[in-house]
C-alpha cells in the first residue's frame, strides 16, 4: 500500500458521523422598510427617489438627461434612444450615458436590488452605462438577504445579479473612486403602492 492509499484509508476509517444541516435562520420582519432601504442604499453611494407614478420617473429623465445623450431604457414609460434588443455586440453599448431598468425586488438590509437577466437583456448594460436608474415597487421590498435568497431562482433566467450602489473602489492609499469599474451613479425610483 502506498502512503497515499494509507492516508485515504485512514481518513475513510475515521470519518465522523454525518450531522444534519442546521435550520435556516429566520429574523423578524422589519418595520418601515422604505427608511431602512434608503439607509442601506445611501450607505452604498446610491440615491432613492420615492415617487407615486412612472410619470415622475419620465419627468426626472427628461429634466436631467438631454436628448443628445444615449439612453437605453427597458422601462416602457421612459423613452430611450438606444434599442437594446437590436444590439448583438455588447461592446456597442459602451457610450450609453443612462440605463433605465426594472428591478425585481429590493433588500432593505443593504440597499441591494435583484436584477435577473431578462431585466437587463445584455449582462453588461447595468455596468457599462455611466449612470443607472433602477425602478422597483415598494411592495417588493424585503427585510434581509435571507428572504431575498428564498425568492431568487437562478435556474429561471440562468443569470442574475444583486446591484447595491454605483461602482466604487479604494486602492492601497485608501482613495475612494466612484465609477471606476461601472456606473458613476445609481438612482433607485421606488414606486409607492
Automatic annotation (TrEMBL):
Domain LUD: 93-191
Signal peptide: none
Protein name, per record: Lactate utilization protein B/C
